[in-house]
Amino acid sequence: AQSVAQPEDQVNVAEGNPLTVKCTYSVSGNPYLFWYVQYPNRGLQFLLKYITGDNLVKGSYGFEAEFNKSQTSFHLKKPSALVSDSALYFCAVRDGGNRGSTLGRLYFGRGTQLTVWP
Amino acid sequence: KAGVTQTPRYLIKTRGQQVTLSCSPISGHRSVSWYQQTPGQGLQFLFEYFSETQRNKGNFPGRFSGRQFSNSRSEMNVSTLELGDSALYLCASSSGTGAFEAFFGQGTRLTVV
User: Fold this and answer.
1) Is B92 close to A44, i.e. CB distance below 8 A?
2) Which residues are within 8 A (CB) of A84 and not within 5 positions of it... i.e. 6 or more apart?
3) pLDDT of residue A105
4) Contact state of A106 with B33 under an 8 Å Cβ cutoff
5) Shortest CB distance from A90 goes to which of B6, B43, B100?
6) Using the beta-carbon criterion (under 8 Å), do A106 and B105 form an inter-chain contact?
7) What is the pLDDT of residue A103?
8) What distance in Å separates the CA atoms of residue A1 and residue B25, rounded to the nearest whole number?
9) Considering only CB atoms, which chain A residues are within 8 Å of B31?
10) pLDDT tens across B42-58, in order?
11) Given an 8 Å threshold on Cβ–Cβ distance, is A103 in contact with B48?
């Protein structure tokens, strides 16, 4: 079964410090991994994805994510946090090897609330 | 390029009523998925449509239904509304499945009273 875990409900970091939002996943086939951000009363905004290739993926707004196959993780990172990064972050996975049953469906984690304080 | 458009943004309905939500995907996108977001359950998959065909359905009762039109626009309908149906309903469009990212609309906030 496909699933995503975001072990931290909340992450707090000071502005200018590096941030990490953790994500682990479980799929039966090859994972297609995504990060989304959600601001209050808004939809989800796509940040970045991992399909194949380089384990370090760069995305929007200075975010990057590191894919680790052995640890089945896909942690979101940013070298220097901004107050404006404060939002709800979701990790999601599609099973690339089981298209017959899951097709376009995304499996989401519960979300991590990131707060960056000045 | 216009994004995913969901209408209406906000709805207040009474228990027992029915509601129809609309989603216009990004031009050229043929895949549309719907998700329900609540504080308690998080993001839950409702269904997915591709070229007017429902290809995948989540674990929701039959009161939840949807369809997709030939122009890829999609609607979802909830009949006999219950208080627990209060949620943010999100529509996502994609040019395909697998490696293609989904783009989400702003959502429709449904409140059932």
Assistant:
1) yes
2) A116
3) 85
4) yes
5) B43
6) no
7) 62
8) 29
9) 104
10) 999 999 998 899 988 99
11) yes
Quote the longest CA-to-CA distance of chain A. 48
Q: Do B106 and A106 touch (CB under 8 A)?
A: no
At residue A101, does pLDDT exceed 60? no
Q: How far apart are CA B24 and CA B2, in angstroms?
A: 10
DSSP chain A: --EEE---SEEEEETTS-EEE--EEE-SS-EEEEEEEE-TT--EEEEEEE-SS-SEEE-GGG-EEEEETTTTEEEEEESS--GGG-EEEEEEEEETT-HHHHTT--EE---EEEEEE-
Buried b (16+ CB within 10 A) or exposed e, B27-48: eebebbbbbbbeeeeebebbbb
- The owner of tokens 């429709």 is B108
Most confident of A48-52, B78-82, B95-99: B78-82
Give mean pLDDT, residues A53-74.
95
pLDDT digits (tens, 9 = 90+) for A77-96: 999 999 999 999 999 998 76
Chain A residues close to B96, C-beta within 8 Å: 104
Q: How far is A118 from chain B (nearest CA, A)?
A: 27
